[in-house]
Design a protein that fits this description.
This protein is an all-alpha fold. The chain contains 16 helices and no strands. The chain has one domain (7-444). Helix content is 85%, strand content 0%.
């Protein structure tokens, strides 16, 4: 049997299959998050700590638009995984083509409105005072590249749904390496400042798009589409929207969280607190790359086997994924609890930022060892096409629980109330997810 074929998702041993899917995803996320981390270090050391805060203001806006592509990608990939599980290649191809059309139409529209309302959006997300001007420069340039990022993120999830995790990894690595190289050229050698950082980021998005386009144009992909497939189908669009809304709602919640966090922290501690949050935020993806990688690797296996009615195999991959992810999450927890000061000094020499960031870091990552349950639980419902429950669980940790906490707790505890909101929401979301997932396993996967 050809091990690159999607059928391997339903036949190979679970630990081997999960590692085969998760390792490239983890490496890809590592490289991508390392890019963000190194980009932040370069900006902090070569431009200044205010520049770190400026990027943090822009990221939720640009990432929300890019997340439209990811949402369309993940929503469609769930359909594709199940279609491949039932050997319905025609539906898989039609779905992929509709993903392309949707991504282009929606993201370009959002970019247009994002640029038109720029003067209002930048301050709204915390671009105030000394942060405003560098935020505006970065925002304008990066938004031009966001449609390329959206198409790349959409394509990346489809590549993984086809059972080609190595190519998905390459798609994530290419822009990351490209961004680092372009940062060095534009910021250090050409001294382009904030504009150089922005053009390096936009250039990396274009590089990623070129690779993804090559993959689907080559013989590597099973999803060869006809022009007629690009015409939107109501049923496919509806299903993509339903499943993709989970990812979109999650990212929209993240964007709202950034908006609230930047403004609340600016009110309590000014630019220093916003910069501290920017550093901690960069570490969240970088430090948890193996956990997110396992979650990404879990999705196509669960979706494929659920589509093939192999429920025992679905149950096995749930337990194994949680076990592996929890192990890595605990290692991350220990490192961040022991060395927060050393980690902060990598980003900046600003003594005020170095003083404020370590305690914030410890609070934010306090519940890290248990979050795998919440992530895998939410991913399971997304993988099997149960959009409503998947949406609920996805929003629990970063929205339904977290947003009220960051609005209420600072009223009583000041800035520390913002930071303790993280572990409290993690703990509550994990407990609720565990109960719902256990009930689902006992009721459905028998």
């Amino acid at each position: 049997m050809n091990k690159n074929n999607s059928s391997a998702l339903g036949t190979d041993p679970i630990p081997k299959t999960l590692l085969k899917q998760a390792l490239p995803a983890s490496i890809g996320i590592l490289v991508m998050s390392l890019n963000i981390l190194v980009d932040t270090i370069f900006v902090g050391q070569w431009i200044g700590s205010i520049a770190i805060a400026a990027i943090n203001v822009v990221l939720p806006v640009s990432f929300f638009i890019a997340a439209l592509g990811m949402a369309i990608g993940i929503g469609g990939s769930s359909i594709i995984s199940r279609a491949l599980g039932t050997n319905n290649l025609k539906k898989a191809r039609h779905t992929f083509a509709n993903q392309i059309t949707l991504t282009i139409l929606i993201t370009i529209s959002f970019v247009f409105f994002g640029l038109y309302f720029m003067e209002s959006i930048v301050p709204m997300f915390g671009g105030k005072g000394a942060i405003y001007e560098p935020s505006k420069i970065y925002y304008t340039i990066v938004l031009y590249g966001v449609p390329f990022l959206a198409l790349s993120m959409m394509g990346n999830t489809v590549i993984r749904a086809e059972g080609k995790p190595k190519y998905a990894m390459y798609a994530m690595m290419i822009p990351s390496v490209g961004n680092i190289v372009l940062d060095i050229i534009f910021i250090k050698y050409l001294n382009m400042g904030m504009g150089g950082a922005a053009w390096a980021t936009t250039g990396s998005y274009v590089l990623c798009f070129v690779f993804v386009f090559w993959f689907f144009s080559s013989k590597k992909s099973e999803l060869k589409i006809n022009f007629s497939d690009l015409i939107l189908s109501n049923s496919i669009v509806k299903e993509i929207s339903s499943l993709g809304s989970i990812t979109l709602a999650r990212q929209a919640t993240v964007s709202v969280t950034y908006l609230l966090m930047n403004n609340i922290l600016y009110n309590y501690g000014g630019e220093v607190s916003v910069t501290a949050y920017a550093i901690v935020g960069r570490l969240m993806m970088f430090a948890l790359f193996p956990v997110y990688g396992i979650t990404q690797g879990f999705l196509p296996i669960a979706g494929y086997n659920f589509g093939a009615n192999n429920y025992e195999r679905v149950k096995d991959v749930i337990y194994i994924a949680i076990k592996y992810a929890s192990f890595f999450a605990t290692i991350v927890f220990l490192i961040l609890m022991i060395f927060p000061e050393n980690i902060t000094k990598i980003f900046t020499t600003d003594v005020n930022v170095i003083r404020e960031t370590p305690p914030a870091m410890r609070w934010v990552f306090l519940a890290t060892p248990i979050i795998a349950i919440q992530l895998i639980g939410a991913a399971y419902f997304q993988a099997i096409g149960k959009a409503k429950i998947g949406l609920l669980l996805a929003l629990l940790r970063q929205g339904i629980l977290f947003v009220p906490l960051i609005l209420i707790l600072p009223l009583f505890f000041g800035e520390i109330g913002v930071w303790i909101s993280f572990p409290i929401s993690d703990l509550l979301a994990t407990a609720i997810t565990a109960l719902i997932l256990l009930r689902e396993i006992k009721k459905r996967l028998v």
